[in-house]
Amino acid sequence: MSLPFLLEIGVEEIPDWMIRPALEHLRQSFAKMLAEHRLGGEVAWVDATPRRLVLRAEDLLPRQADAEEMVSGPPKSAGAGAAAGFAKKMNARVEDLGGTQTAKGEYYCYLRKQPGRAAGELLSESLPGLILGIPWPKTMYWTSKAGARFIRPIRWIVALLAGEVVPFEAAGVRSSNVSSGHRRLGAAHIPVTVEHYQDQLGANYVMVRAEERRKRIENCLAGSRIKPDPGLMDTLVYLTEYPTPIFGGFDPSYLSLPEEVLVTVMRHHQKYFSLLDDTGKLAPRFVAVTNTDGDPEGLIRAGNERVLRARFNDARFFWDTDQHKKLADRVEDLAHVTWQAKVGSYKEKTDRVVALVKELGGSADAQHAALLAKCDLTAEMVKEFTELQGIVGGLYARAQGEPEEVALAIYDHYKPESMDDEIPRTEAGRLVSLADKLDTLRGCFGVGMIPSGSRDPFALRRAAQGVVRILVEGGLSLPVSRLLGEDAQLREFFLDRVKYYFKDVRGFLYDEVNAVLAAGHDDLPDAAQRLAAVQAVRPTENFEPLAASFKRIRNILEQAEFRGGPFDEALVEAGPEAELVRQSSAVRAGLGDGYRENLEAIASLRPQVDRFFDKVLVNAPDTRVRANRLAMLHNLLAEFSSIADFSEIVTSKES
Amino acid sequence: MLNYQQFLFQLKNYWAERGCVIQEPHDVEVGAGTMCPETFLRVLGPKPHRVAYVQPSRRPADGRYAENPNRLYKHQQLQVILKPSPDDIIEQYLGSLEAIGIDLRKHDLKLEEDNWESPTLGAWGIGWQVMLDGLEITQFTYFQQCGGVDLEVVPVELTYGLERLAAFLQGVESVYQIEWAPGFSYSDVRRADELQFSVYNFEMADIGTLWQLLDLHEKECQRLLAAWPKYPDKQRFPLLAAYDQVLKCSHVFNLLDSRGAISVTERVGVIGRVRKLAVGVAQAWVQQQQEPAA
Fold first, then answer.
1. Do A590 and A487 share a structural domain?
2. Are residues B225 and B111 in the same domain?
3. pLDDT in tens, A112-121
4. Which domain holds residue A192?
């Protein structure tokens, strides 16, 4: 016989974005608990609405199998008293004790039988800790200061093993078989069974399965041209128990406001989908996803339209008000806007960024864009819609007759904001973005605001990542060391981001990245080209063996503590040594501009290098010959390591 | 349809029936109902408390010369504190909306994550903004800390935005069109207030005087806090008066801010000054509550 199990944790509304990680943790910790208690079974599914986390498992054993364990006791030589004590501890009679022969002599032992425990009992013990062990980004307490912590108060718990309630208490709530329906459309108390749980909740306007809610939304939207927005869809799926989309409209005159503003209001502030017309332009309509079964009287539509109208009116008011003072007239106002309390105002930042853009060779337009880039922070529109910073500046610059190059650079200068985001479209935009981010990094590191572990309140990793991407993907061969300045911590932090970018974003192997960066990381587009060359040449037959030889050379030089010295061709022995010297000068003479060709040429040295190590003793008895050979190897390593330090390559023999 | 004052009566009545003391507004300027001693001090310590009051809340920088239909220098909040928070608090809250005539089966209500924090008061909590048909109508917060003190008993705070809720109920586009009482609109009652204080806050408040006021109120509060440790009869000690000085400082700070008079470096510094006073009063208050009555 095997039993089905249902757990439902009833919680006050959980923030939508936290739900899926919590479910995954619940699934794993429950499966682990089943395994530890030898209860068999498996988790069939986990799912959630804002008000409940649900786990369904199948095929649990009604009780654990009995277990036997051989327990060692005292040595037989210890006497009757010890044997009696051991028997008592085992809850057995002395005559039931056995004996076992070990290297140290004969010992008492006892075969202890542990009857398997009932699944319900084990679940009762495990579930409170398992529930309260779900990790959340931010927790609260509600019963008392020393009480349980969870994302929001737990209000009910359903725990059913087949037909029986698994009894326990967590956070002051006793488990039962009573669930709760939709806050207004369903019943407050619903006795449920494992078998009919989903239907019983469905009848009370709770769709337990997220995928069903998603399908319901999608079905209602089928046939409408929606601006696709998977992130918003996820949010709405986990913000509702019974989602029903409704369509609303707004006055077409608002379409004269920039699309960016309209979409931001609808998406971020109201969680509406935008609709497009036949030509792909924004239509004066929207979709709100409600947590109801419909809106027959149009009350919800009217309410949402009214809210949107007020929001759009605000936006129009902000736009009109902001035009009374041009961006160029707002530069001085930035002195009153804090950038970082410890570092200074946006005016000071702006002055530094303008200087840096100029230093980096930025055009007059780029410098002007840098001067105006932060001015929108004083605009009413950005105070209200902070996520539109930069974009609003770009739109205002265009409306105020600034050159298009300037407007675009301002518009783009926060980019890239994520790994999926594009880098700025224009050279000027890239330079402004680069200078802004570099200034942020320098400024924060300068006053000790350095990210540690998961703590990065000023998003410096993202800033550094943006710098790396702009340099590499924008093909900007600017010297990183000069961009970063002297701060050793900043340099190390930045190098980590460079490695992360090439490995985790671009997918290069870690040893290739290490090898290439060890040969220089001041010019990132160049490093990217060298990496591509190493990746291309690596599968060829000579490459890895040569890399192994280079590693050997490095070890020899390190062991000899050799730091370089004169090389005298006259001391070269005929045979493999002379051949290596001759062939390496030939390769050297043939090197051109192509990294890939150069790498192939260097790799072609392999037979000579191999022969040299086969036949020639580096540690020659004659100290002058020895020093000369070390010098030769030293030069070889140095000259052929400018593309990549091959000794960093992990060859297949090692791995 | 309920007019504004009927709607207030209904809400107050609803919470009175659930054991709340119905208080009148605190008579010192505050930026939010949370700052009133009825909330800020009463949530500290183990004593249960239930109170509801309408609090006019002044935010000088939000003034719009009575020209914006939704933004006000001084808006009204209904502040409800239930300490400890009852288990069915959300149901009780939904009941309050039904009490003012909202049929929640016909409307869309969502609780969206929104955690509240006030650096000036050293206070924060966990909760939601309550959205009704896309309109934020209430801030719902389980307090966790106040005046830098972890709360022993967790209170719930419900803050209703009264003007927007009334405009929603009456279906008007501007708060100024709300019918306050028969024959009186919100505009009749409050328009001059909004206009004149916008002019004062943005144009005419004297910056030098405000800085002096800030110093004076701060010194008065500091003087009292310095006297607290040695004062013999703790129950008599005027901590409530000291706290009023904190509120004065906070309001003057907001005025300076709306005058654009607070520079980068000063801003953080002034918030820190006010916070220090608030935390000082909160800690003394906790001690005072623990003293046996004389």
1. no
2. no
3. 888 899 999 9
4. 3-63+118-202
The Cα–Cα gap between B176 and B27 comes to 24
d(CA A340, CA A479): 27
- Whether B177 and B163 have beta carbons less than 8 Å apart is answered as no
What is the ipTM score, two decimals?
Answer: 0.94
Residues A543 and A620 in one domain: yes
A140 chain-B contacts, CB cut-off 8 A: 125-126, 142, 144, 154
Contact B263 A310 (CB under 8 A): no
Which residues of B lie closer than 8 Å to A, measured between beta carbons?
68-71, 85, 87, 90-91, 94, 104-113, 115, 125-126, 128, 132-135, 142, 144, 150-154, 168, 171, 173, 260, 263-265, 267-268
**Which of the residue ranges A458-462, A571-575, B132-136 has the most confident prediction, judged by mean pLDDT?**
B132-136
Same domain, B126 and B15: yes
Residue A349 in this model has a pLDDT that exceeds 90: yes
pLDDT confidence of A67, banded at 50, 70, 90? confident
Burial-class residue A593 by CB neighbours within 10 Å (0-12, 13-18, 19+). exposed
Q: Best of A141, A151, A247, A250 to disrupt the B interface by mutation (most B CBs within 10 Å)?
A: A141
Total number of domains in chain A: 5
State the pTM of this model. 0.82
Q: Are A482 and A489 in contact (CB under 8 A)?
A: no
pLDDT digits (tens, 9 = 90+) for A257-308: 999 999 999 998 999 999 999 998 999 999 999 999 999 999 999 999 999 9
Element containing residue A458 per DSSP (H, E): none
CB contacts of A141 in chain B (<8 Å) are 144, 154
Closest-CA distance, A484 to chain B, in angstroms, reads: 26
CA B59 to the chain's CA centroid: 11
Tell me how many domains chain B contains.
2
- Of the candidates B158, B182, B200, which is a domain's last residue? B200
**What CATH number does the domain containing B87 carry?**
3.30.930.10
- Examine the domain organization and report whether A440 and A408 are in the same domain: yes
